[in-house]
Amino acid sequence: MKKLLILVLLLVIPLNAQEKIALKHQKWKLKSYKENRVLISKEEGVWLDNISEPEMDLYKAQGDSITNKAMIICPGGGLFFSAYEKEGVKLAEKLASNGITAIILKYRTYPREGSVIDWAATLWDKPQMAIDSAKIILPYSSKDALTAIEVMRNSASKYNIDPNKIGLMGFSAGGAVTMEATYISNSKNQPNFIAPIYPWMDIVDQRKVPTNKPPAFISCANDDPLKLAAASVQIYQDWIQAEAEAELHMFSKGGHGYGMNKMNIPVDSWSQLLVEWILAL
Questions:
Q1: Which one, 190, 205, 207, 233, has the greatest CB density within 10 A?
Q2: Which residues pair with 194 in a beta bridge?
Q3: What's phi and psi for 156, nearest 5 deg?
């Protein structure tokens, strides 16, 4: 039965997106391996690892009030895997149903023979190894994010979006990708608004608010075991000090990686707050 469920998920999930868009990229010097899709659990859904070919999964805006805004989503996973369903598909579907075009970015992740997911599980008590390994990949992942923005901006008319209303967001390591891309962006690929969700800032070195000062939506939980609350507050403070727009939602409980899971506590409201924030921009 479990094998049947996995097969159904692997067949259905790619079909949820209306369009898959490959991203041009320079071939890296790292060795690539076969991309894997693994059903972790009912809550976590499918994770992907060994992503070496970046692409975007597009979810067109739907509903009675379609906007001209778009959000590019970077799922988390330590840059070792992508929590594609919990921090990608479920949010993309919610944004699209509220009239916001959503794009899940499959950015490049750490390459390793076999299961990177299994290997990453051994790094919990080796934080410096995790940081050092993730820093190897961050330049590639953030470049994929910048390319995604530029592609969507150049194709804005095709997808009925405003080229000046393209956002970038991410969870945990995807939040690091979001912030790294934001800090190093230029006029062609700057995000117009950003949403780092419990961002893993340990791997991000440059932290200067960019000149375009994109409005920021930040969310985290005080009890995050990775202690990411302070970094989230720091981003908020940096934005306010730069006289940029920022909105911070800190929840007393939620832990790390709550994503789109329903926990029956106040943190469940974060995604609706995000929707309302985007619509108000």
A1: 190
A2: 168, 216
A3: -55, -45
pLDDT digits 0-9 by tens, 236-277: 999 999 999 999 999 999 999 999 999 999 999 999 999 999
**pTM to 2 decimals?**
0.93
Residue 159 C-alpha from the chain's centroid: 20
The answer to whether 44 and 88 are in contact (CB under 8 A) is no
Among 68, 91, 103, 104, residue whose Cα is nearest residue 272? 91
pLDDT in tens, 32-58: 999 999 999 998 999 999 999 999 999
Separation between Cα atoms, residue 159 and residue 278, nearest integer Å: 18
**261 token code pair:** 């899971």
CATH entry, 2-280, from 3.90.600.10, 3.40.50.1820, 3.40.50.2000, 1.20.120.430:
3.40.50.1820
Contact (Cβ atoms closer than 8 angstroms) between residue 175 and residue 260: no
- Which residues lie across from 246 on neighbouring strands? 216
Q: Phi, psi at residue 270, to the nearest 5°?
A: -60, -40
Burial (CB < 10 A; 0-12, 13-18, 19+), residue 37, is middle
The domain segmentation of the chain, as residue ranges, is 2-280
